[in-house]
């Protein structure tokens, strides 16, 4: 099952950078995709990547991260000033940041107004283990049959 967890900016606003990173990584390690309101500071994104690299093991293979935020280029002078004042007062609440575990998320593509998130086929929870076992068992049986036939042919040839 694919799980998305929304994290409002107010939930991480008062945390230190280190605590923000820990909170987000704890969620991602549970194989959940984080939808964060707003965005991280560039140095926080760097810290997130560094911390991720330090924690990579067999279960946790890293993260995929993408941020999308609206950029309005054709604003009038007064509207630009108003927008900058609001950003100064309430912080980086513009946009959305997506952080997902590499075991679930294959690729994230960002276009100006949308994010495309591609998941891996057969990711944890979406594919039944018994079906996967049956397929591998059938392949092994077919391979053994081929090997047995080859051995029998070789033995017959040697006898002649």
Summarize the structure in words:
- The chain has 160 residues and is an alpha+beta fold.
- It is 46% helix and 22% strand.
- The chain has 2 domains: 3-121; 128-160.
- It contains 5 helices and 6 strands; from the N terminus they run βααβαβαβββα.
- The protein has a 4-stranded mixed sheet with strand order 1-2-4-3. The chain has a two-stranded antiparallel ribbon with strand order 5-6.
- It is elongated, with a radius of gyration of 25 Å.
- Mean pLDDT is 76; it is low at 125-135.
Feature tags:
alpha+beta; 2 domains; 5 helices; elongated
Q: Determine the strand fraction and express it as a percent band.
A: 15-25%
**Structural class category:** alpha+beta
Helical residues, percent: 40-55%
Q: Could you name the ranges where pLDDT drops below 50 across 5 or more consecutive residues?
A: 125-135
Q: For the CA atoms, what is the radius of gyration? A: 25 Å
């Amino acid at each position: 099952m694919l799980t998305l967890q929304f994290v409002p900016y107010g939930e991480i606003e008062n945390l230190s950078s280190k605590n923000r990173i820990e909170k987000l990584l704890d969620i991602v390690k549970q194989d959940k995709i984080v939808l964060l309101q707003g965005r991280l500071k560039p140095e926080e994104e760097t810290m997130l990547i560094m911390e991720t690299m330090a924690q990579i093991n067999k279960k946790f293979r890293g993260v995929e991260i993408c941020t999308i935020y609206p950029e309005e280029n054709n604003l009038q002078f007064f509207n630009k000033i108003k927008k900058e004042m609001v950003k100064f007062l309430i912080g980086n609440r513009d946009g959305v940041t997506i952080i997902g575990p590499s075991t679930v998320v294959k690729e994230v593509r960002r276009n100006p107004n949308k994010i495309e998130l591609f998941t891996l086929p057969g990711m944890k929870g979406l594919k039944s283990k018994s079906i996967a076992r049956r397929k591998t068992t059938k392949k092994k049986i077919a391979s053994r049959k081929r090997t047995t036939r080859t051995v029998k042919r070789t033995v017959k040839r040697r006898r002649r």
